[in-house]
Design goal:
The longest helix is centred in the first third of the chain and has 22 residues, at 2-23. The model is unreliable at 1-31 (pLDDT under 50). Helices cover 62% and strands 0% of the residues. The protein has helices at residues 2-23, 61-73, 77-84, 92-110, 117-125, 130-147, 153-172, 178-190, 194-207, 212-222, 230-243, 253-260, 275-290, 298-311, 315-325, 340-357. With 367 residues, the chain is mostly helical. Helix 10 (212-222) packs parallel to helix 12.
């Protein structure tokens, strides 16, 4: 029986990846690692897979330095100082809140009952610290998704507590959009009505009308697999992109809408060259080229572009995105995989192989 199941699984694998490999047989040849013809990502200065940082989408050395101190000493004051000095108007505060919450959640998973003590101490010793409340709320959201089943009583109890803490955080920092952005994930998990969602979304855009992270959270709520539809998500994304000011990464939002509705198994190679996908990619590339080089959300868009560009066999363009984000993989689509670094490394290897099969080399790749 075990042999039968193995053969069935093998056949399914051939069906799924066969067209993918056949479409590349004249351009990308598979080779064993270390073989003379094998493409080597390290020749481009890429970071080895085991050293890829899964905590952030791109470099934030101040955050990484503080995380190291907090986790080594279990003292929270450095985290409080960093968040206190991070402007509430931009994207960086939301990202740092997520990173601190994720670190505490991962610690707790690794050391049940003891991990993440610094966050509990932070909340108890500084109850009026807005940063502590924001990290606590995000921590509860991540715990709900990580430790319980969506829709279960435990899941709902944790998210209800997260909503309560979001309210506390909002009172401690009037005008800060982060508590309301975190609450968007609560609303998705608890299945808020469209009217409740609209009221919450109004609070977000009143405070940060062009916040890319907030739009991504709202788009997730409105997609087909949660509480909306493909049409609703597409309308939301294209409207936001059309209204985006010059230099805003919101022009890339339609690409995220396409990603949210990718078929689980795609056997049609022309899908990646379709008008819908091409238009969304061009919008994202325009956004990347127009955005500030220090925009905290820029890496998020580049990471998603890598997947679409590789599947579209636009090898050189994929390589240009890779050289700008390599080293950090804490972004979609990698974070949806059990091993984000491994998932990223596969696409990176495909990009290198495709690039070299079409005449590219480290010498021809402009950084």
């Amino acid at each position: 029986m075990e042999i039968l199941w193995f053969l069935i699984a093998l056949c399914m694998l051939v069906v799924v990846i066969g067209p993918f490999l056949r479409s590349r047989r004249n351009r990308v040849q598979l080779a064993q690692p270390g073989a003379p013809d094998a493409a080597d990502p390290e020749t481009y200065g890429f970071v080895r897979q085991e050293l890829l940082d899964v905590r952030t989408p791109g470099p934030d050395q101040d955050l990484l330095d503080v995380l190291e101190v907090v986790q080594r000493t279990q003292e929270w004051k450095a985290a409080a100082q960093l968040l206190a000095g991070t402007p509430k108007e931009g994207e960086q505060r939301w990202q740092r809140v997520q990173a601190f919450a994720g670190a505490a959640s991962l610690e707790l998973a690794q050391q049940p009952g003891a991990g993440g003590a610094w966050l509990r101490n932070w909340r108890s010793e500084a109850p009026k610290d807005a940063g502590a409340a924001q990290v606590h709320a995000e921590f509860l959201v991540q715990q709900a998704w990580r430790t319980s089943t969506a829709g279960s009583d435990e899941f709902r109890i944790i998210l209800e507590e997260a909503r309560k803490v979001c309210g506390e955080a909002a009172l401690l920092a009037p005008g800060d959009p982060v508590p309301y952005i975190t609450e968007l994930a609560v609303a998705r998990g608890l299945g808020d009505s469209p009217e409740q969602f609209d009221q919450l979304w109004a609070k977000v855009i009143d405070r940060a009308p062009n916040h890319m992270g907030a739009h991504l959270a709202a788009l997730h709520h409105l997609c087909e697999k949660w509480h909306g539809s493909r049409e609703e998500a597409d309308h939301f994304a294209t409207t936001a992109a059309a209204r985006a000011p010059q230099g805003s990464l919101l022009a890339a939002l339609p690409l995220f809408a396409v990603y949210e509705h990718l078929p689980e198994v795609n056997l049609v190679n022309s899908f990646w060259q379709s008008a819908v996908v091409t238009k969304a990619m061009e919008g994202a590339l325009y956004a990347v080229h127009s955005a500030r080089s220090d925009d905290p959300m820029l890496a998020h868009v580049r990471h998603l572009l890598i997947v679409f560009l590789v599947n579209s066999e636009r090898w050189a363009e994929a390589m240009h995105q890779l050289v700008r984000v390599d080293g950090h993989v804490g972004a979609l689509p990698w974070t949806t995989e059990p091993d984000p670094a491994a998932a990223y490394a596969v696409y990176r290897a495909l990009a290198v192989a495709g690039y070299e099969a079409n005449g590219g080399s480290p010498a021809t790749l402009l950084h």
